[in-house]
Design brief:
four-stranded antiparallel sheet; 124 residues; two-stranded antiparallel sheet; nucleus; 29% helix; alpha+beta
Length: 124
């Protein structure tokens, strides 16, 4: 995973949220967004495939198994807030995979993220 920024993602209205997660403590893999369904709440939230999920509604995810995460997600009735670590290199993955072209929101978000990251590296 590339160096990324932490972003708070908020969605309301209850499930379905429109994304699928993979990983978890029992798999010895970070919890990541595996898939985002088009035209879903997740697709308009700024969440991107490959983002690492740090917390869900304030609950840290690092020590949760995948079934525990599913149980936590199923308990959320209206408002979902996720802290995620975004992938800087996800823009390049989008550009390489023309079967899933990036949305304008993703392009703008990653362009901003790349500029911020480059500025921080040049200044620091």
């Amino acid at each position: 995973m590339g160096t990324g920024d932490f972003i708070c993602i908020s969605m309301t209205g209850g499930a379905p949220w429109g994304f699928r997660l993979q990983g978890g403590k029992e798999q010895q893999q970070p919890l990541q967004v595996a898939k985002i369904r088009s035209q879903s709440k997740a697709s308009g939230s700024g969440l991107c495939e490959g983002d690492e999920v740090v917390s869900i509604n304030g609950s840290p995810c690092a020590d949760l198994t995948h079934p525990e995460v599913i149980k936590l997600m199923e308990s959320i009735t209206d408002s979902l807030q996720m802290l995620v670590k975004s992938r800087v290199d996800a823009l390049f993955l989008f550009l390489e995979d023309q079967s899933h072209p990036p949305s304008l929101q993703h392009l703008l978000g990653y362009t901003s993220l790349l500029i911020t990251t480059l500025a921080n590296q040049l200044m620091g």
